Amino acid sequence: MDSAIDPEKLAKLAEVAVNVGVALQPGQDLILTAPMVALPLVRLIAAAAYRAGAGVVTPIFADEAIALARYQHGQDASFDRAPNWLYNGMAEAFANGAARMAIVGDNPMLLAGEDPAKVARAGKANSLAYQPALAKIAGFDINWSICSYPGEAWARQMFPDLAADAAVHRLAEAIFAASRVDQPDPVAAWGAHNAGLRKRTAWLNGKRFAALRFTGPGTDLTVGLADGHEWQGGASTAKNGVTCNANIPTEEVFTTPHALRVDGFVSATKPLAHQGSLIENIQVRFEAGRIVEAKASKGEAVLQKLIDSDEGARRLGEVALVPHGSPISQSGLLFYNTLFDENAACHIALGQCYAKCFVDGAHLSPEQIAAQGGNSSMIHVDWMIGSGQVDIDGIGADGSLEPVFRRGEWA
Amino acid sequence: MDSAIDPEKLAKLAEVAVNVGVALQPGQDLILTAPMVALPLVRLIAAAAYRAGAGVVTPIFADEAIALARYQHGQDASFDRAPNWLYNGMAEAFANGAARMAIVGDNPMLLAGEDPAKVARAGKANSLAYQPALAKIAGFDINWSICSYPGEAWARQMFPDLAADAAVHRLAEAIFAASRVDQPDPVAAWGAHNAGLRKRTAWLNGKRFAALRFTGPGTDLTVGLADGHEWQGGASTAKNGVTCNANIPTEEVFTTPHALRVDGFVSATKPLAHQGSLIENIQVRFEAGRIVEAKASKGEAVLQKLIDSDEGARRLGEVALVPHGSPISQSGLLFYNTLFDENAACHIALGQCYAKCFVDGAHLSPEQIAAQGGNSSMIHVDWMIGSGQVDIDGIGADGSLEPVFRRGEWA
Ligand SMILES: [Zn+2]
Ligand SMILES: [Zn+2]
Ligand SMILES: [Zn+2]
Ligand SMILES: [Zn+2]
Is the domain of A161 the same as that of A277? Predict the structure, then answer.
């Protein structure tokens, strides 16, 4: 398999992950979680982290065979257990200044054949246990980043007609291109990319639009923006003062919609991969922020279950702008992975909003965020609504219109 | 490589590790540390643990390439860092009832080419960080066990003249024989073996010797035994009530020397593999329990550093009896690994004593243990002093002598 993955580009990905992604500081410890299959990248990242002056690098590997062993042999009570001690330890490390990196790349369909009730219980137990550590990541207390590795199972899911080697090669090249490590100086390329995204967020934050209106085939949707919303994109600065790129890759600028001010109808422009199912041709109608009608040509039951998760699941927590010409969009690939797919098109997300997408969001209470229109939910599911045929206008507080996107590109 | 390791015996080793070694209880969580190379055994152990009713099994892997990356690329300050958070988390898990398993099998010479000062600093930082978790293991709060996997680098170290496959095969068969999984019913074989060891400890505990005197080539050492010492061997019962075999394999019976009552000189009968170095022909003189002179024909600097780790590092924490005819001794192999080599010969250990080697040790405070002669230290390093030419006499409280070993065998 190794020959399918360009070793030079993989080494550059490790450099980008350490120096652009998590932006590891001299003396800072690093906690790194990864699927076992990503071991070659973990080794390169550890070396890059030590070159960058890491304190100690601690990798925690998840093995798919061991995960499956629980479903094959575990007693019923096992599915309500989680390694709380490990996550509590991580929370302690973050409180003491450690940085966090995660590598994705495991088999997206690993648990597709297992009892969904057990999968849900194990997932819930794990989420609860992870809460103390996740709070410090979601609260942006520390610098963190996610990047990806072209695991074979993931590659075969994306390219079912190719041999394993060819599939891994295709996925690897797609990851490298999207992560800008196919360029001669990836760190400089990320500097330029971040500057470009910053120009967009500065312009949008200066405009303070009251709403965005999306129009295109099957779409006429007005998305009100939350009071005191702030646009984010590319590099941003954690509370520990470190400016990092939390997602490698990233193409989006994004902010918080107003949970009560979304009206009209919208058609998805790509299938939505959700918990092992593909939901196709989604069409949804909003009234006063709430989904009042939802259809899909395939997977409609999954869609209905999703929007019935809780009250906030029928409302928006994110709106994001991605030009149709972005490299991931131009690849034409469906990655079955939000880290990539959300960067292929303008999207909205059902569910939870981000505190950092408010002016001074770090100091707002959940009550204040709700009062300004921020949605809350257990879920956050991104969902593509952009294409080369979609226009976007900004609507000012006085009702004035200003072009934002024309035919899928910045106006 | 897989074909070099008998899959049936490896599966039996996993069963022995779970059901004889750690004796995992239904509903009990398991924390498992292993070198990356032992992944096939970790997977079998995870499956066996779930079959035995495990709560959740959490493997933590150590990768040799990542360990080396620190020495190749790390800044100087890195060598005083350790993942305290991970060990604090383990201590929390043990306090909440989790069991502990460790697999050895990595390259014993991994760090042989690295700066010994950095190796020592990293080892010390790690020992300090591990202290809260180790206290619960050394205090036998929970059931725990160590077993081993025939990693290739280890095998090549032991069999430098063989091809990799043949070396792994030889080591695998040696591990399987020593771990009694080459027998038709390994669990029954362990029952019989434990009964034999129990007979020896019962005899020694009945005798209540004040000291043991070792005599042989280059050795005349009187090892005073701690007040209220208790001989242990084979299966024993942790404070949580679970009877486990902490070492797979084990051939020794052992107890606590008196930290202030060791006098004379002693010559090692085998090289000591320590942190990637081989220390050869150790000769040491004790006065009133303390090493006052230490020499070695090779690795003397490493030895000096070791006994300078802390005050307790110059005193004994264990004395152990192993007949020269034990299967591991008879194999004639030097394993470069304490788990095996300490079961090839009588040995002493520098450093920390075991609370369980005291009568009612579970209820003694550290102060009481110290008052009875128990040593304390960050280190515990076993070191072979037995051979077919060594005699041992028990010295009674009244000064009477009684033969214990003659020419390396039980008298
Ligand atoms: Zn997004
Ligand atoms: Zn999102
Ligand atoms: Zn021992
Ligand atoms: Zn020992």
Answer: no
Residue A194 placed within a domain = no
Q: Look up the ipTM and state it.
A: 0.90
Domain containing B27 equals 2-178
Q: How many domains does chain B have?
A: 2
Which positions in chain B touch A59 (Cβ < 8 Å)? 61, 63, 66
- Name every chain B residue with its beta carbon within 8 A of the beta carbon of A74: 50, 54
Per the CB < 8 A criterion, the answer to whether B351 and B379 are in contact is yes
Instruction: Give the angle subtended at the CA of B382 by the CAs of B379 and B386, to the nearest 5°.
Output: 160
Distance CA B147, CA B345 (A): 19
Distance CA B45, CA A66 (A): 9
CA distance B295 to B267: 10
Same-domain check for residues B221 and B322: yes
H/E segment holding residue B122: helix B116-138
Q: Which two tokens stand for residue A346?
A: 């303008």
- Stretch B43-68: mean pLDDT, rounded? 98
Alpha helix locations (H) across A1-150?
Answer: 7-16, 39-51, 64-73, 84-95, 116-138
**Is A198 within a domain?**
no
A-chain residue closest to B26, CA distance: A75
Q: How confident is the model at residue A2 (pLDDT cuts 50, 70, 90)?
A: low
Inter-chain contacts counted by CB atoms under 8 A, chains A and B: 133
Q: What is the pLDDT of residues B111-158, one digit of tens each?
A: 989 998 999 899 999 999 999 999 999 888 999 999 999 999 999 999
β-bridge mates for residue A119, sequence order = none
B15 and B93 belong to one structural domain: yes
Tell me which H or E stretch contains B213: strand B211-216
Per the listing, tokens 């690098």 go with: A57
For residue B361, the SS3 value is helix
Residue B79 lies in a domain: yes
User: What's the one-letter identity of residue B94?
Assistant: F
Residue B308 sits in the same domain as residue B404: yes
